[in-house]
Amino acid sequence: MSWKKTSTNNDKPLLPPIPTLFKDLTFYILGLSFSETTSLKSTIKSYGGDVAFQLNKNVKFLLTTKEQFEKNCTKIQTAMKLPTTEILSKDFIEHCITKRYYSIDLINEFKLVNKELLINEKQQLQQNDNKNSSFESTSTDSLESTLSKLKLEIKQSTEQQQQSTQQQQPQQQQQQQYNQLELIKNEKKSIKIFISSTFLDMENEREAIVKYLIPEIRDYCNERNIDFSFVDMRWGITESKDILKKSTIATCLQEVSNCNYFISLLGDRYGWSSGDEYTESFNLAKIYYPWIDSHIGKSITELEILQATAITPKFNLFYFKSSSSSSSSSTTTNKIEELIESEESIQKLKELKNQILNEKNKITNFSKVETLITSIYKDLIERINRESLMSTNGISNNVNSRIHYDDQNLEVNKNSSYLKSLLKQEFIKNYSFDKLNQFIFGDGINIENSIQSEPKPFLITSSIGSGKSTVLANWVKQLSTSNQIDSKKTLVVCFFIGITANNKNRIELLRQLFSIIKLQYQVSIPLSEDPSSLKEEINYWYGIATKDGRNLIIIYDSIDTIEKGTNETLSEALLDLIPSRYPENVKIVCSCYTDNYEELVQHFQLDKNKHTSVLTGFTDQQQILDFSKSYLSMFKKELTPVQIEILKKFLEPCSSPLFLSSILGELITIGNYKTLNEKLIMLLSSQSIFNFYLVQLSRWESDTSFPKNLVTDIIQLIYLSGNGLYEDEILSILNLKSSYGFFSQCRNLFTVFGGGSNYFTILSPFLKLAIGLKYFGNKKDGQLLPIESKLLSNLIDYFENQKTNNTSSSSSTTTRSSLNSLKRKIDYLPKILISIGDKSKLQEFLLNLENINQLSKSEIGKSQIHQYWNFIGINSENFKDIINLYKFKWAQYCNGNPPLEELATTTFNIGSLFEHLSMYDEAYSFIEKSQDYHIQLYGDCHSSVANDIKRLVSINIKRSKLDQAGYQSEKLLTITEQLFGKEHLGTIESLLLNGLTFKKQTQYSKSLEYYKSCLKIFYRFLGYNQSNLFIEEKIDNNNNSNNNINNEDLNSPIYFNIKLGEIFQSIADIYRKLGKFDIALNYYNRTLTIYKNLKKENHHCFSELYKNLGLVSKKVGNYQVAIDYYEKSLSIVKDNFGEDHVEYGFILCDLADTKRKQEQYIEAEKLYNQSLEILKRKLNQDTSIEIAEIYNDLGLIRKKQSNYKEAIAFYKQSITIAQKSLGKSHLKISFFNLNLADCYRKIGDYKTSEQFYSKCLLITQDNLGYDHIEVAEILNSIGLVYKKQGKYQQAENQYKRAIIIVNKSLGPDNYKNGIYMNNLADIYRKLGSYEMAKNYYNKALLIIEKALGKEHSEYAEILYCMGLLKLSLEEYQESIKLINQAITIVSNHFSPQHVKIGIFKNSLAEVLIAQGKSLPNPREFASNDQEINKIRTLFDCSLSILKTEFGTEQHPEIADIFINMAEFEFQFGSHSKSLDHFKKALEIISIVFDENHSKYQLISDRIRYF
Predict the structure, then answer these.
(1) What average pLDDT is seen over the chain?
(2) Pairing label, strands 227-231, 190-197
(3) What is the helix (H) or strand (E) element at residue 314, kind and residue range?
(4) Which side of the chain, N or C, has fewer Cβ within a 10 Å radius?
């Protein structure tokens, strides 16, 4: 189709384009239809402009419509932030072309927004805001809500600043570091804040700072890997008299000197500055701080300010409280008296404030607590961000880099930050790292020396809260300082499972791990998008990490908290994460709770002495006190002697590190320090962590500062969500503006210190148990509580409103938690709907194209779609109606003119879903559209286009469109070679697809070249030993058919690489096709070893492998072995995909074929029809080669049943389909014609038969070579035709050549050798060369006996033929004996009514006749009624069997019996009976053949004789 515009007579003449009109201008087109976008893009380029595929800083003009602009989508929001990009109406282009010029003046007319005016208004608003000191929160908004808004604004501003800096200085970017050995060495930025104020008049302010501000600042710092601490001198100074302590001034000045951020709150009080106690404390402080000698009489507050501004300058922030708000109506009389100061103090305070003003310090005035908190928050965050940029010259190169975090979705910084936070708690003094080090290093110095025949993980276990995470963190620190390990050669990756929303998911953990390996070693191979592929590639990425002698250490902490499926055990879940076998220089260290210890020890078969370590908690009082001191010192706190004594009374529960740290953590969050001792006693009295949680839950519930039901609703919602929720999600779901401080209260229990603390989840099993018991203890099985129904409904409503099409947005206006909510919508919503049985809403979910688009991105997601529809009640039989619904939804979606990039992605995902459902024609149509869209976006050479072509090739192979697949696969290889370079790992998939395409086209030598190229690339890139690269060379050189895999190192990394398994299997397929079964079996066994090392027993990959092993077994005559393999394969497909899957149909066909080989025709036909029924629903009936093969196989059965007319009809049907699909010269056509030729041979049309055989022979030799086993089969058939025509010499040549081929391909003992030698012996019998015949019969008999046994029908066949030889030799008794043996074997092997019994008894009758004729007086035989009746009985029995087995009298074999009976009656019985028999034979011959057949003429002549 041409995209050129054609002019008509009514059109105005088209002027030639001006190629420089839009020179050096870059446009971006948004919101237009595909045709409009294409046309506009072509127009712009013809006038010298360029159109960008992505919105970036180089885009001068974004062209769109007013309607699209008003939607304010993420692209518009991004353009608004780009200072160089203007947003114009699309009509701007047409206007410029019409005017034939472009100028700046034209732009204003077409602007959809005046960005300059908006910027000026924003700046004016900011100036007004600064004049008012800071903004005030509204009366309806709480402090927490105000802080949330601030967080969002600051986040946006920070990201813009980083983006701007990165654009200005891209050359300064440094490589990201992902190795924990290096990350742990990085100096961590530290922030310590000192809060200075008088206490009595600032109680509310300091309370709010501790309760609201400090948690937010701590979280902000933790997310950026910054150590945070603050000093609040109220701890230990809880009463006014305590201020008089002698060490107070010295202690305060010391803390100020140690901090780097100083916050001063000044109200109407000057502070403590006189009295004997003051003088005593001042004189003591003067010893340590001599500079204060000249400042006698100044308050402790002013001394703190002097220390911070003049002596050890800090980053100082001053906040002045207005006098009007300095007193409270609730203040008691005693408190008012305490607040009153002398005139001298008031004057000193005034002078202090003036001095601060004169020194031009930053000062903020406030009257409300909300204003103070928000102002401090803004000032601190601004300073932290500024220091971060200054410390790296404007470039963020730490682990928090937003570029790396967003683009790679890595959480290295989270895990690293959490690890470093654990290093502060070195409290397990009695734990030794010796076992761990022995596990890693073995007895030598280097990690390479610790080689084990079966690598196993190391397991650390403890009860909940006994410190296993801390042990692992400290061990990594020890590794980083050890001289036994080289961080350049050893990558250490840590995962603390459960600290974020994502890292409990197995697939996300694998994605994180592979991404770290990819980025650490700068590998350009893309990660698989499909989760099942990710799981398969685990040892592939292990191989990259351990290439060139490198080593990999992976740490999974709390591995038993990983997400598990329904009814899935922990051991089963871990198979995806930790394969049963992996390379030796990969070391995996795990930790788990003691509840799961024995299961994991058994699962991994661990030696407890070598591979496990059991932790206990604190073992004595001193450890408890030391830990308490260490823990509180992080917050610049310490226990008083009274509190220490309290602690000593609760030593037993405090032996649990989790219990003790939880108690101390709660103390830190308590704002009112006056009741500290009482709180400590109350908390410790809970005695266990479980009871502690129950106490906390009850305490929060009874806290009247929280609105009614707020606490219970939030806690139960977190519990019911399963995986947890973000703060903003919780507030949205419960329709809350604020948690009224509850998030700050419960953060210590529901989040992880050091990681994503705005994400609330239940990490502790005891906490989960406590919540379940408290709120859902009375729940009856299968019934929902009212509150449960309400909250689940709220969850449904919330996730239904999430827009999944925004999940790819990079807009900074969307919070990270919101992005995660959108992505998790498809994870949460259907599971909740299924849990409450709401099929109606689940169907709405499934018919929402946005949801389907997201789910279809992965194989697991597509399988889930299938399962969800099954839950609703839609099965595979009516899936076509669902497909039509999706096509209709897609058409509606297209009518909305979505952006082209979004349209391409959605179209591809829907197409891949259709492919998953075996709807290949529909899938091809959609993927082809996706390819067109991607080419429009990116051009031909792009990874997205390559991915489209890859799917198209796969679909065309399944549709048997091999010519198209061949062209597309070659195109795919060209693209990937341009993207990655030749002989690069990135080309592997393309090479494999080319190999598969040529294999399907029966061009096996070309296919093998591609597969071997893959193998060479892998071995070279991963540094594998290439001495065993191509095992066929060794087998050929050694002439050895044994499986060389037994002589290889099964612990080699080769046998842990799933990609190599796929390549080995592909090469095995080729050698199987070429008839080199020993080599094929060797490669298949290599694949089997790899799969068993890496896969679950019922993984779908085993299905294909077992099927192929079945094919090899069938080819070499091991039918029962083949059946066993096929049944295994069927069971796996059934478990994974169901019985209606197309692959199930394919395997049924192979099983049927084996049954046919065993002559179990009824069962075989039943299986063929089952297969045909499935494939007709899934494939195109007119072109599917698989359907053609089934028709061919049904023809084989009909031929075996001598129903030649139906057989010929089946064959012709199969040939018609195959020729449409493959062409007339394809090898498959040859095979089908071969069977047709054999049918013509059976009906005696030898001339037609010989023509088809000769044609088959030429095609087969061209495709497979002259020595292929299939060539031998054709030669044998041609020999049969020549024998029937009496061309014995020509028949002998064909049989001899067939025998030579079998000896070479299958070995001298293969059963086919026995069959061909039997046929050759028949020739010699016909020629009268009886000794030669006898010799070959005996050889054939020995071969069949060895290969198939004495009870096989082929063995009986040779005995029968040897009986015919004895007949020729006139050794009648021996002939009778042999034929009777044959009859007995066939009767036992099949049944007494088998067709062969009929044939054998007919021949037995002939032997008895010949024996009678040989008597000296033949008349005696003719008069022996007993013998005559015996012969008649044999003929009648033979006739009855053949009629029954063939189901008709109209069969050539039956005609032959009638002829024999007629001749017998003519010589020894009734001539009238003889005539009747001849007439019946003539009738059969006329029906089966025609009147021109030679037998018809022969019988006619005999009848005329009468």
Answers:
(1) 80
(2) parallel
(3) none
(4) N
